[in-house]
Structure formats: C-alpha cells, structure tokens
Design brief:
Largest sheet: 7 strands, mixed
Number of domains: 2
CATH superfamily of the largest domain: NAD(P)-binding Rossmann-like Domain
Shape: elongated
Radius of gyration: 31 Å
Organism: Bionectria ochroleuca
Structural class: alpha/beta
Helix content: 40-55%
CATH class of the largest domain: Alpha Beta
Strand order of the largest sheet: 3-2-1-4-5-7-6
Keywords: Membrane, Transmembrane, Transmembrane helix
Order of helices and strands: HHHHHEHEHEHEHEEHEHHHEHEEEEHHH
Number of strands: 12
CATH architecture of the largest domain: 3-Layer(aba) Sandwich
CATH topology of the largest domain: Rossmann fold
Pfam families: ThiF
Protein name: THIF-type NAD/FAD binding fold domain-containing protein
Oligomer: single chain
Strand content: 5-15%
C-alpha cells in the first residue's frame, strides 16, 4: 500500500521527529510519576489496612510490631496483663498516687473501667494521665488517624505514628509506660445508633463503665453521648472547646448549666436542653472571652487545597474541615483537668467546684408571669375564662432566657427584672378546648418563637399598647429592634423544630 505523499513528508521532517520524541518522553515521564504516586498510595493503603478494625469495631492488637522496642513493649504488656508482673513494682511506680489517694483509693482506681470517647488532644492527655495514675481498664473510641497537625497537641504521638489510628497510637505508647493497663480499642465513630454497644460492659463481663470521658468536638455526637449517659445514669464528664483559648487560669470545672463564654458549651447546652437535659453533667470549660488580637475560627485557605496534598493522611478522602486555631498547651490542660476529676470521683477524694447559677426561682417566676399574661390576653376574647394552661415548662423558660436571649432584654439589652411575653397579639382562635364541663381543659397555642425577653417595665408597656390598644409593632419599635426580634424568633423556631424531630 502506497503512503500518502503528505504523510511521508511529515514523517520525514526532522522537526516532526523532534516533536514526536518530546511527546513520547513526556508521556513516559508522566507514566513514571503516576506509577510512583500509585505505588506510594498503595503503600499508605497497605499500612491503613493493617489497622482497619474488625467487624465489631475492635482493632487487632496482634499486628506485627514496627520495631524491636515495640516488640519488647508488646511482649511485656502481654505478660503484665496475664498477671506475670511484680505487684511491688507496680506499687512502686504508683507510690506517689498511693500516698495521696490512700491505699483504698488507689485500689478503687486500679479496679476502675473508664471509657474515653475522642482520642485527640484532650482525650489523649486524659488517657495518658489515667494510665499513669493506675486505671487498669480503658476503652478508647475514635475513628480518626494521627496527622502531622495532631503532633502539636497529642499527648504521646510521634512522627512514626502519623497515619495510624489514634486509638492504636495511644495503646502503642502507653503500654511502654504502664504495661499492666488493658486497652479495649474501638476505631469507629460514636453516634446514638452504636451508643449501647460502645458504652456497654467490659469484654466478656457484665462490668459497666465506672466513668465516661467526652472529648468529642462534633456537636451532634457530643449531645448524643451526653444524652445517653444522662438517661442511663453513667457518670460522665465533658470537655468543652479548647480551641482559640490561651488563658489556663480561666479553665474551670462546673455543671453544664454554669458554662459560659464558649461556643461549644453554649451549643451543647442548648441542644441538651431541647432533649430534656438541663443539669447534672460536669464539664470542663473556659471563661476566657474573645477580644481584639485573639485567635478565631478560620476557613482552610483555598491555596492549600490547590496544592493537592491536603487530606492525604486525613480520616477520609476529600474531607474538608475548618482550621481551628489551637495553642498546643490548652488541650493538655483540658485533658488533665478531665482526668483529675475522674480520678477524684472514682477514688472518693473530696472536691468542691463552682456552684450552679441558682436561677430556678427566676424560671418559676417568669413561667408564672407568662401564664398570667396569657390568661389576661385570652380574656379579651373569652371574658369568663379561668384555669388556662400553657404548653410551656420551666425548662423552656430557662432555654429562652439563658440560651436564646442570653439573659438580656431584646429591646434594650438590660439584664435586670427580665420576663417573657408574646411579641404579637394572639387571635381569637388561639385557644384550645378539650372535653366538656366540668372536665374541660383550656390551653393556649403558644410556641417558643411567640415569646420574647423584655424587662418587666418594657413588658407592661408592650402589653398595654400592643395588646390592649391595638397598636402596630412599627408604632412602638424601630426597624432595627424589629429585625433583631425577628432573627431571634427564627432561631427559636429552628430549635423547636429540632426538638420535635427527636
């Protein structure tokens, strides 16, 4: 077959041959690069596969050790956990704790079973402290792996641990310190669907957890954990946000109802109130306030993603997160404070933390005020009305006053003599009547978003002009105030919808 002259001339052209050689060389180099990248990813994948948990979420402890030191530590741990370890050596290592807690206190700690949920900066320091202090059964729950950025705050992780599960990293390092400690590793994400299993008895026993540590930084799983512990009467302590904090003198332990000036504790408190948990959970939180020049939550810069390397060692592919500025010392202080509380509680050592707000009397007063105003409002349409009920609890009052309005009038920002009152005048059909006389129930159709926070003087003025004289809101308040109230009412609707969906 005769070749086309144009094609023959093109193939004979030296410039074409040079171009073809360049293209072929480029393709070869690209193939080598892609092949190398594929090989590297394969190595990382192989490493990760060795740490993948079994179907029950437990990590295999018998993987081949990384080096001779690991092999020695694992062998020593197996002997110690089997009982082949001198008790006098253990007591010598725990001698300072034994003197402080007394022998009976240390015995209680050594017999304890503690669950740590979240093994990052806070959880790792809490776990390390518990292991060093004598706790002998520790269940670790975390789905994540150690990353390079973890090393500024993790208690024991080293460069050699990057890419390995956080639960495995803690066990690997801590058995070199306290080989007699038994670890139950669960490399999985905590949520309400698996709460019963992950917070269940110790392996092959009926021994329930003596204490649960919440070191989760995700609001949904955090609330699920605390709600489960509250409902099942499991002792728990929760760590609030350590990010963007820098003042260790402002970190305290108190009831969840007393926590302030921290976004995570505020969100946790709101969600818990919506599911019926208002108090009874100790938390570690910071009273430090934000200010000029202080760190704030920032988005991950887009140029970091364009580099193509972000997430290589992350928990999941293409998982975008926001950068939370963290001073490496602060998660350690939070974690050690958490562990300190657990140790004192388990051993019976006396402690006395900050008292609660003591606002129950205020909530009762505001509840009664709302009911009284509702009765007066409905008498405008039903003059002989008596015995009106309102679909509200003192817990709802607490949520509105403390969480939605931060204890201040939405009109002026004044925080004294505050009450709740309807924003708009109810209609005639706002009354619900069930049954017949004499067994009749009358109640008001009242939602959280119907109520706003004012001082008592402002509420009296509002009631007189809006409800009795029929004035419009625009006649009494400026546009800025009305917009501020509308924004609060939207939030109240959102929280009420969340509560109804549970």
């Amino acid at each position: 077959m005769k070749m086309n002259p144009l094609v023959a001339d093109t193939l004979a052209d030296p410039r074409f041959r040079l171009f073809a050689t360049a293209v072929f060389s480029g393709a070869t180099v690209a193939s080598l690069i892609l092949g190398y990248q594929s090989l590297e990813r394969g190595k990382r994948l192989s490493q990760l596969k060795r740490s993948i948990p079994n179907d029950d979420g437990k990590v295999n402890h018998s993987d081949p050790p990384v080096d001779k030191e690991d092999a020695r530590n694992q062998a020593l741990a197996r002997r110690a956990q089997a009982g082949d370890f001198d008790e006098e050596l253990i007591l010598e290592q725990l001698a300072r704790n034994r003197v402080f807690l007394k022998p009976e206190g240390l015995d209680k700690l050594r017999d304890s079973f503690v669950v740590v949920v979240g093994c990052g900066g806070v959880g790792s320091h809490a776990t390390a402290s518990l292991a060093r202090s004598g706790a002998s059964k520790i269940r670790l729950i975390d789905f994540d792996q150690v990353t390079l950025s973890s090393l500024n705050r993790h208690a024991v992780a080293t460069l050699a641990d990057v890419g390995t599960p956080k639960v495995r990293c803690l066990e690997r390092r801590l058995i070199a310190i306290a080989p007699w400690v038994k670890f139950d590793l669960r490399q999985e994400k905590f949520d309400h669907d698996v709460a019963e299993r992950l917070l269940g008895p110790w392996e092959d026993t009926e021994r329930q957890p003596d204490f649960v540590i919440d070191a989760i930084d995700n609001i949904d799983t955090k609330v699920a954990l605390l709600k489960y512990c509250h409902d099942n009467k499991l002792p728990v302590i929760s760590s609030m946000g350590a990010g963007c904090k820098s003042d260790p003198t402002r970190i305290i332990v108190g009831d969840i109802s007393t926590s302030t000036d921290d976004a995570l504790s505020r969100s946790t408190r709101r969600r818990l109130k919506l599911v019926g948990v208002h108090t009874g959970i100790p938390v570690v939180y910071s009273m430090e306030k934000t200010g000029d020049g202080k760190a704030e939550l920032l988005p991950l810069p887009e140029e970091e993603f364009q580099k193509g390397s972000v997430g290589d060692l992350g928990p999941m592919a293409n998982f975008r997160v926001r950068i939370l500025p963290v001073l490496g010392t602060m998660p350690a202080v939070f974690g050690l404070t958490v562990a300190n509380h657990v140790i004192l509680a388990l051993t019976g050592y006396p402690y006395d933390y900050a008292p609660g707000k003591g606002r129950d009397k205020l909530y009762d007063q505001v509840f009664n005020y709302v009911q009284g105003v509702e009765e007066k409002l409905h008498r405008l349409f039903h003059p002989n009305l008596t015995g009106l009920k309102i679909p509200l609890t003192t817990n709802d009052v607490a949520f509105l006053l403390d969480e939605l309005y931060q204890g201040k009038s939405v009109i002026t920002g004044i925080s004294t003599k505050i009450v709740l009152i309807r924003w708009r005048k109810p209609s005639d059909d706002n009354l619900i009547v069930i049954g017949e006389e004499p067994q009749v129930q009358r109640s008001s159709q009242l939602k959280l978003s119907d109520l706003v926070c004012m001082t008592k003087e402002e509420a009296v003025r509002h009631e007189k002009r809006i409800f009795k004289k029929g004035k419009k809101l625009e006649d009494l308040y400026d546009a800025e105030t009305i917009a501020r109230v509308d924004a609060k009412r939207v939030k109240a609707d959102r929280y009420e919808a969340y509560r109804e969906s549970l």
